[in-house]
Design brief:
Blueprint lengths: L6 H13 L3 H14 L4 H13 L3 H23 L1
Length: 80
């Protein structure tokens, strides 16, 4: 039996790729993390970093905004 993919594994590997100037691979793994947990702000933040390193500033800003929106939504749900 094969284990389900882990969002944290994808996120950690994406961060590692970013630290090693491998933005394309980082973006791929950050996107996979988002597939695992669609509203996880960390996945959006990692995608924003990768997109920024790839020179895609508008897309990076959009991802950053999406991540911040999910973060706000999450924090508000904890306070309820």
């Amino acid at each position: 039996m094969m284990a389900a993919p882990s969002a944290t594994v994808f996120a950690r590997r994406a961060f590692s790729y970013l630290m090693n100037d491998q933005a394309e691979l980082a973006l791929r793994d950050a996107m996979q993390a988002q597939v695992c947990i669609p509203e996880w702000p960390t996945a959006f933040y990692l995608q924003a970093l990768a997109l920024s390193k790839l020179g895609m500033e508008t897309d990076a800003q959009d991802m950053l905004n999406d991540g911040a929106n999910f973060e706000t939504k999450r924090q508000n749900s904890w306070r309820s």
